[in-house]
Amino acid sequence: MSTTEEAAGGYDYDRRLSELKAFDDTKAGVKGLVDAGVTTVPTIFRHHRQDGPQVSSSSSSSCNTISVIPVIDLSAADAAAREEVVAQVKAAAETVGFFQLVNHGVPGELLSEMLASVRRFNEEAPETKRAYYTRDARRKLRFNSNFDLFQSPAANWRDTLFCEAAPEPPRAEELPPAVRHVMLEYSGAAREVAARVLALLSEALGLGPGHLAGMGCADGLSLVCNYYPPCPEPDLTLGCSAHSDPSFLTLLLQDEHAQGGLQALLASGWVDVPPVPGALLVNVGDLLQLVSNGRFRSVEHRVVANRSRDTARVSVACFFNADIARSTRLYGPIAELITSGDGAGRALYRSVTVPEFLAHYDKKGLDGRPALHHFQLLQ
Ligand code: OGA
Ligand code: NI
What burial letters (b/e) apply to 125-150, b meaning 16+ CB within 10 Å? Predict the structure, then answer.
C-alpha cells in the first residue's frame, strides 16, 4: 500500500476527496448523516487502529470512580488559603495538565442554558443551520463539521459552532437565534474565570499575578461549541482525534447528562475525564507550555465517539489566546523561567507569533502529532 493510500484509509485519493467534498457540500454535518439513517460509519470517518479507541488502556467502560483529575475550589483562592490553591494549581498544571474548577462563581443556570442552546442550534432544521456553514476563518461565527476535514487522516463524528467572542465579539444579530440570548453572556463569565485562573497560574510560575494577563494571553476568546451525535459504530471512529489545544488556556464546559467521552493521555494510558456537576474543566494549552518553557503541560486528549443510541453529547470549549486576528507579538519562553529555578537553563522552544502558530496547527490538522514539536529547539 502506498503512503497516499494509507493516509486515505486504503482507498483511492481522488475517491476520498470526492467523498469529503460531497459530505461538506451537504452543509448538514454528521447530524445530517444520522438523520438520514446511516447504520454504518462512512469510510471518511474511519480511523486507523493506532488512534482508534480500541487500543486504550482505560476505556470509557472501565470504572474510574475516583478520577485522577484534581478538583480545585476557586472560592478558597480569595481567602487565606490562596497559597494552598496556588500550590494545587501548580501541581495540576505540571503533571496532568487538567483540573476541575468548582465554586468558580458562574451560575449553574448559565452553564446549563449555554449547553442547551448549543443542543437547540444543532437540532434545528438543516436549512436553518446551512446558512451558517462556512470554512471562511474571517467570519466570526462559523458552523461546520471537522475544521480540518481536508487536512486530517480521518474525520471525526462531531459538528462544531465557532464564535470569535473577544476582543471584538460579533453583533448579537450575527448570532443564530438559538444561541443569541446566552453566548455573549457566557463568554463574559468565562473571561472572568479565565482572568482568575491566569493570576493563579502566574503565581504558580513564581511571577506576579498579572504577568500572563499582561502578556495578552487571554485577550482573545474563541468559543468552540461541539455537538457529538450518536454513532452507530463507535469503535470505528472518534468524536475528536487526539490533540492538544491551540490556546494558552482552555475552559471546558461538559454535558453532565451524557455518558462522558473525554479522555486524557496520562502516563498510565488514556483515562476518562468525566464531567463534575457544576464544574468547569481547565486545561493548559500549547502556548502556555511554550511560554512556561515546558513547566506546564499541554496534555493530549481526545473524545471517543458517542455510544448513546439516541442522545447527542454537547460541550463548550473556551480557547483563550492572544488577539488571534491582530497579534504581532512574539511569544517565547518567559526570561525568568529560562534562567532561574528548576528551569532547563535554556529555552526549549523558539519564539512564535500566535497567527504563525495557528497557521501551523490548522495546516497540520489533527493528525496525532503535537503542534509544539515544530517549534521545539534541538540542542
Ligand atoms: C476541544 C476538546 C473536548 C470535549 O474542543 O478541543 O478537546 O469534551 N473538546 O468536547
Ligand atoms: Ni481540546
Answer: eeeebeebbeeeeeebbbbbbbbbbe
Name the residue of 298, 301, 314 whose CB sits within 8 Å of the most ligand 1 atoms, as the mutation to test its pocket. Answer: 301
Which residues have CB under 6 Å of ligand 1? 224, 226, 240, 245, 252, 254, 262, 301, 303, 315, 317
Give residue 81 CA to ligand 2 midpoint distance, Å.
30
Nearest of 174, 165, 169 to residue 317 by alpha carbon: 165
Query: In the structure, what pLDDT confidence band is assigned to residue 57 with cuts at 50, 70 and 90?
Result: very low
Distance 275 CA to ligand 1 centre (A): 12
- Residue 12 is predicted with a pLDDT of 86
Which of 1-10, 145-154, 248-257 has the least mean pLDDT? Answer: 1-10
The whole model's pTM is what? 0.93
Q: Which CATH superfamily is domain 27-48+69-375 in?
A: B-lactam Antibiotic, Isopenicillin N Synthase; Chain (2.60.120.330)
